Amino acid sequence: MSKPMSGAQKRKKKIEQKLKDAKLPKLDSFLKNTVESTSENPTITTSVFEIPHENSEKNNVIDICQNMNNTDDCDILLSKNMTIICTKQYPTDIANYIQNSVLRHLSVEDKQFIVEHGPCRPSGPFSRNAVGRCFDESFYYTVSKAGLRISRSWLCYSPELHKCYCQPCWLFGDNNIKHQEWIRGFNDWAHTSRGIERHEKSIPHKMACMAFYSFQNHNTVNENQEKQIRDEANYWKLVLDRIIATTLTLATEDIPFRGHRENNETESKGKFLAIIELLGKYDPVLTELLQRPKGTIKYLSPAIQNEIITALGDKVKYDILLEIRKAPFFSYISDSTQDISKIDQQSHIFRYVNVMYDKENKPVDIVIHESFIGFEIMEGQTSSEMEQQLYNNFEKNKIDIKKLRGIGFDGAANMSGVYSGLQARIKHTQPLALYVHCAAHNLNLVINDSVKNITEIQNFYEKLECLYSYFANSIKRWAHLKSVSSVSVSLKRLCTTRWSSRNDCLKALSLLYVDILKLLAYISLMGRNKDEKSKASGLQNYFQKFDVILIIVIESKILNSLQIVSLLLQKSDIDLLKAFELLQTALNKIKEMRNKFEEVFEEAKQIAISWGVEPTFTKIRKTKTTKFFDELSNDERLHDAEQYFKTQIYYRTLDIIIKQLEHRFNGMNQVIKLFSSILPINICSMNENELKHLTTSLVNNYEHDLTIDLVNQIIQFKRSFENQISKLNSVHDLAKFIIVDNYLIAASFPDLCTACFLFLTIPVTVATAERSFSKLKIIKNYLRSTMSQIRLSSLAIISIEKKIAKEINTSDIISTLANKKSRRMF
Question: Which molecular function terms from Gene Ontology are attached (predicted)?
């Protein structure tokens, strides 16, 4: 027995084997593993290789490619060479594939090109040598003894080299054959016939011809492998098409993906796998996928889910950012909230305006967008930290801050501070960015101020919350109220931050008022314990007063007037003019109410009678006060209950609301005045001198966006379309009238169109950001609290911008993932 090798010997042998393997040709250089000879020739067991032809490290194209930084550079060089070759008269001439007198290595693509374009066989005349001999066209054929004329398809002639050569041997010949001249070129015209006959009878030539036919019939190893890859890619495209459709459906509908245990054996496998299995019962593609053995790739893992969700989210975000970059201006809207994981999430919203075109490139509409591009973790709470984070976000998304024309935040000090708030810092960088305090937040603050400054109104809402808690904290009492109620309405919880909360509470109380009082009376007599009876009696005594009914009527009228405005303000396509008109209408209604106390009093009186409450005020106990010598008689306190309610509650409530509406929306009023020259109503009503003055002021504020020619454009527009302008109600209508309805003349009023776009871009509220928080709470709930930030942001983008998500072309995503997957199989 031989002695076992030592460890050093084994390592040395392993290194030698690796070096030997490295010298072997690659798989794609093989065309046929073995060639069986005919009965006339001995059996040949040899491999047919591509001929590398005299390597030259400095000049060979392959060596040049290997010295490049990456394969892309090599591909570019070869692509340029092929482009030059294709322009020549004979693209398959062997001379086209010589680099510095050396035949370069041919790739599979080169061979396919040469085979598909046919041999180089010019018909002459042919160049003669020094003794007058040359190639003849008759050499292209051979004639048998019986006179049969047979073509020598292998024989080619290079008009550039003035040599003939064998195309199969050039493409697929053995490097060790003796007749190398039939690869590099044959020009011994004195012995041409003998040389041709000797070569075509040689075994290497026959082997090369067999390899040529095999390659031509697509039976090579590479072709079979590529066909298998294509089949795999097509299959995975079908699979991914279904997986992406399922992912889109779940993401757009805010449905969770994951289960407790994600495998086929458990019942709690999650909704994603459940839907795939359901579709697999009716779809053969998914049926085959699910029947694959355990451990094989199926593209159903959580990692693949995240990959697809991220790809879809990035595609939607890319499309939105593309529209933002194309828009002439944009505004930035932002707000933040804390998620279930106690992480401060910042919502990024961009408002912009674009023109929609039909297939014929004709404008059909002007659309105001407020688009969501994702959540981001707040890195700090100070304005300086938020400013830096904002600029980083702009840079990352390639958004030009020079186009920023509006900022929309809520009333937080670090966001809206005049001197060091975020809006002040942004305006320092971009002075043209107008800050607009959220109109919806402002309106809610108006209501809150009217409540907290009047004791009776504040006590009323506190008692209303106590009433809700009294019934909601007991399942039995809540069920009892539901059973005796004549309407399918339940009491609502009061939330001071939710804009419609107070109105919802009052509506529910009005509808359930009689049932509530009856039930409170019953509980105060038949309650289970003293505490329950006492609370019921206290609530009953309070709510059956006429004062309370009058407060319900007054607050309902006020909130109904403001509720309509609040709902319309939350629309994403509302502009400043429409918002201002709505607020002005609400203000006028409140002012009218101030003179209608008697009507309100009579209405409350009728309601009280119908509810079984005596319509009399609670008597005010006369307090004994010390009277000083200089005190006037009219300084006495009011002792009449009706007069007290009228002056101290009714008038004060309305006066606070009127004052707050005028004060809090003064900034919006200033912006409207700045753009007053492009408002349709002003264009019609003002004379030309007034329009010139207002337009000049607008141009001076936006000298980077507008020219002084805007003055002439507005006057000319008024003279041309005065009758039509009177029918327009908003700046949006004006822009649509010019750009869509009369698109042929839009080029005559470029500055007017720009001013309209500028006005429509300025934000009104941050309601879109608030709505994104609703999605945040649905997507990242207590069961999904460990979700990654990338997945959260991508799911939110897909859900909020579902219209864009459903319209994206997923073929690129499918092709990329399918090709990546199919390559893993080899």
Answer: protein dimerization activity
